[in-house]
Structure formats: C-alpha cells, structure tokens
Design brief:
This protein is mostly helical. The chain is built from eleven helices and four strands.
Length: about 350
C-alpha cells in the first residue's frame, strides 16, 4: 500500500519540489566560468519554487563573477572541461528504481515461500510416512525460515551504514573514502556473518524451541475408535528445523556480504546487477527444489540445500561485482596520485 501511494504521488503531483523534471535548466557555456543556467522554455510556464530559487541563485552567482572578472577572459571553455549539472531524477527513473529495489528486497521471503510450497507438495512421501511426515516437515519450515530470515534481517544495519557512508563519499567525489568505506563494511559483514553461522549451529536448537513456544508442536489425531488424542511432535519438528537452519546458515557469511554489496550497488545507482542476482537466485531455487525435494525426496534438507545454492550464486555475483568496482576505484586513485605527483 505504501508503494502504491508513493507512485500515485509521483504521477499526480508533478509540481512538487521534490520531483522536478531534470531537464528544467538549459546549459549555456560562458568564458572560463563553467556553465550558466537558465530555466528552459519547457519549464517556464509552471515553474516550481525550487526551480525559481536554483535559477535565481545560479544566475546571480554568474553575474557576480562576470562583474569581478574583466572582459579579458574571452576564450570559451569546452563542454568536456565544464562541470555538468546533475539534475533531479525523472519520473521514469524514480519508478524504475523503486520497482527494482522493491523486487530485490522481497526476494528472500519469496525463496522461503518456494521452499514451503515444494515441501508441502512433495515431502509427504519423503520417508514413506505419508501425511505425518509431510506435517512434520512443513511445520519445521515455519520456525526454521523465521530463524534464518530474521538472523539476516538483524544485519541490515550494515547495509544502512554502507548506504549513508558511501553516498557521502560519492557526493564528495572522494575515491579514497569510497575504497575505505567499502572494504571496511565488507570485512564487518564477513565477521557478522560468521557470528550468525556459529550462533545457529551451536544455539539453534534453543532458539528454535523458543520460537515454537512452551506448547511445542502438537496435533490432534482421531484414533480407530473415534477418540481424539493429542500427539506431541516437538522432537521431530525441532530435528527437521535444526537441519534446515544449519544448512542455510552455512552460507550466512556470504549472504551478509551480499546484502552489503547490494546496498553499495544501489547507492551507485546500479539496479541491473541486483536484479540479475534476484533472477538467478529464483531460477536456481526453483530448479533445486524440483531436483532435491520433488525427485530425490530429501524433504526440508533438500529445500535448504536448494536455497543455499541460490543464495551462494546470487550473493557471489554481487560480491564479485562490488570487488571489481572497488578495483576500478583503486586504479583511478593511483592514476590521480601519479598526476598530482
């Protein structure tokens, strides 16, 4: 609902100062002073307050510089040496970015839903116990996916810090700060992901028991005489859930690094790579569930293996992209140092 309201505001509030058309200023080169801005004919009919303020301030600054510098500056600068004006994003760019980001962030819960659908459909004959086995494995997916997904959500503070620090470095065009920020957050992500791995492996059973609650996992079964009796399935559910959680946690360090890499790529306005990673993860997870759950009958462990493989491939792609991006920054930083020396 929030996304829908946000998009409606973009579409039906075109005069809002927050969403101004980016090409509302025409660019005119001027002698040795870079660029002079004036409102274009496209936006002079209904200018916003922000447009008027920016145009007035920029033209006023240009007028002051013209009065201070004499007419001796008669040589014009080329457009390549001039500093470009970074306009506000267009509607199409905003909608594309929001839609892509929304799909990226909902990908992890969708992988868990695919696991639930595959286990519920095919796990009944995994051990030959029929309905009882299906109930146990499907019941185990609830606390197991909650533990795995919540553990990753708790690491989102690293992605938020990455976006904040990296955006500041981008605004200052500081390559050194960009490299330091990205290398530090990737190291922190690796450490935090390792902590999540150890926590689930050594304290997973206790955490899963607390998620199940004091009642545990019980079902009511009708006996042959028509009498209803309660059956406690807590040990079997805990065993299956712990197996799923441990397999998923094996890729936790890479998953946390992938979340951080995804935030860095979005900060660099690269939505194509995260979207490709989501597509790869979805395809691998569906194929893996079909092979390990439907064909090989491995139940929740097969679903966990398929999701882990999907996470490993998607997050590996993100980390590799960020690593190559950081390598490019290092090369540019070295060239800058050589030029200054």
């Amino acid at each position: 609902m929030t996304i829908i309201i946000y998009l409606l505001c973009i579409l039906f509030l075109p005069t809002s100062a927050a969403f101004t058309y980016p090409k509302c200023y025409a660019r005119v080169n001027r002698p040795k002073d870079g660029i002079k801005f004036r409102p274009s004919a496209r936006s002079t009919r209904f200018p916003t307050t922000l447009q008027s303020q920016i145009a007035a301030s920029l033209n006023a600054d240009d007028s002051d510089k013209e009065s201070q510098q004499s007419a001796s500056t008669s040589t014009t600068t080329s457009s390549a040496s001039a500093t470009p004006f970074v306009g506000l994003p267009s509607y199409k760019r905003i909608i594309t970015f929001v839609a892509t980001t929304f799909l990226i962030w909902v990908s992890e819960p969708l992988l868990s839903l695919v696991d639930s659908a595959a286990v519920g459909r095919f796990a009944g004959s995994a051990t030959g116990a029929g309905t009882r086995s299906s109930v146990i494995q499907l019941a185990a997916l609830g606390p197991a996916t909650m533990l795995c997904d919540s553990s990753l959500y708790l690491t989102m503070f690293i992605a938020m810090a990455t976006t904040n620090k990296l955006a500041t470095a981008f605004a200052k065009h500081d390559l050194k700060e960009q490299i330091q920020t990205l290398s530090h957050v990737l190291g922190v992500s690796l450490v935090v992901g390792t902590i999540v791995l150890l926590l689930i492996n050594f304290q997973g059973e206790r955490l899963l028991a607390s998620i199940l609650g004091p009642a545990g996992a019980t079902i009511s079964v009708e006996s042959a005489k028509g009498v209803m009796k309660t059956v406690n399935l807590t040990p079997e559910v805990l065993r299956a859930a712990l197996g799923y959680a441990r397999i998923r946690s094996a890729v936790a360090p890479l998953a946390v690094m992938g979340i951080t890499s995804q935030a860095a790529l979005l900060c660099a306005q690269d939505t194509r790579t995260p979207a490709l990673a989501v597509l790869i993860a979805s395809v691998v997870n569906i194929v893996g569930d079909y092979i390990f759950v439907a064909k090989m009958r491995w139940g929740v462990r097969g679903a966990a293996l398929a999701t882990s493989m999907a996470s490993m491939m998607a997050n590996g792609l993100l980390v590799r992209k960020v690593w190559s991006m950081m390598a490019g920054w290092k090369d540019a930083c070295r060239e800058k140092i050589k030029e200054e020396s």
